[in-house]
């Protein structure tokens, strides 16, 4: 069952679309989370830097560490001296990590500007009234370093981003201020976004897969109709049926149109083959029956045996069998040879070997015309055309060879009654003879012109008929010249 589902175009299309969207969503989700985290992290950094510089500016202005106003619980602050001692910290600070020191209780700061050890007890609440402002003139560093840690202020624990700002040349030596900004907003936003993605992405993928499956199924519904009709045609062997063709003017409609054209060509080929077999059986029956009758009469009455008639029937039977075999090879797709043939030389040789013609054959305007193909098949074309002209000519048969416009041209003309304009294509069909009053012995089986046309087409050329200057029929063979 699993293999059957994966073998469906609809399922594969839905799976592929789902995978593509999933990859795109994951990439977009990661990008959104990183951008959100960076943006909120920058805001936290800016808040921490602002808080640290506010304290650093007060220290640089001469405010004593124990006189700083550090009641802001949103931004825990530490002030550390050169010896790493905590000399000022936010009130109610219970725990801290990632800042200057893990200590939370400040010790008294030591002045360094006059070398004494005066200690300043007590804290002021107004930013400088409770301290000694002598020695003002410290310098706040222009750079800020950042670190991350956590802190607990008045029982509330949170993660923080700490900004580190140095203050040089104060009355208490070089001091470092650490101020933190909460990362709760960043963590909350990231967590909320992750949750939304974990819930929304699967739902979106289900929607994408379902919609793709439904759309693909609807788009392929005509294909299923074509497949079902082709299966029915195969089962019934009725080549007259056609597959349904949708009115969508898309690839599926073109597939249906091409399939119907293929079925039509196949039907025509099969019907042509059936007609060929039926006509061949009929044509073979006549000489075989005649030959058998003559032989049976000769066996019973030797003095009545018509030997010339038997030979004639045998020759006719042999020629008909050869024609049928050649047509079978042509129908099977036999390709013409790749030899170079000079039609002028071919015409001279073949015409010189003809004996027993009713009328002489005149050769006019013979020029060298070289083509590529099968010499035997081209000789058969010439022979069939001359045989046809011999049957219909009154007094003359004329053959000409030349080159026109890059094509080799061979013509055979007679001065007979010609071919009516409406019959000029029909005479190239197999077993077609326009003169129904002729006897079969005199008129042939109606395969000569059909063979000539097939050979011409397979050599990349054409064979047509029109009125001859003498008033009869002129057959023109045109082939690509070398």
Write the layout of secondary structure elements.
Blueprint: H1 2-6, H2 9-60, E1 77-80, E2 86-89, E3 93-97, E4 139-140, E5 145-153, E6 156-170, E7 173-182, H3 184-236, H4 251-300, H5 307-331, E8 339-342, H6 343-352, E9 361-366, E10 370-373, H7 375-392, E11 397-404, E12 407-414, H8 440-443, H9 448-458, E13 462-467, E14 473-480
Parallel strand pairs: 9-11
Antiparallel strand pairs: 1-2, 1-7, 3-5, 4-6, 5-6, 6-7, 8-10, 11-12, 12-14, 13-14
Helix pairs in contact: 2-3, 4-5, 5-9, 6-7, 7-9
Mean pLDDT: 85
The CA-CA distance between the termini, in Å, is 61 Å
Could you tell me the radius of gyration in angstroms? Answer: 53 Å
Low-confidence stretches: 1-5, 115-135, 436-442
Number of strands: 14
Q: Element order, helices and strands? A: HHEEEEEEEHHHEHEEHEEHHEE
Would you tell me the structural class of the helices and strands?
alpha+beta
User: Number of helix segments?
Assistant: 9
The coarse silhouette is rod-shaped
Report on the biggest sheet: 7 strands, antiparallel
The tally of structural domains comes to: 3
Q: What proportion of the residues form beta strands (DSSP E)?
A: 15-25%
Fraction of residues in H or I helices = 40-55%
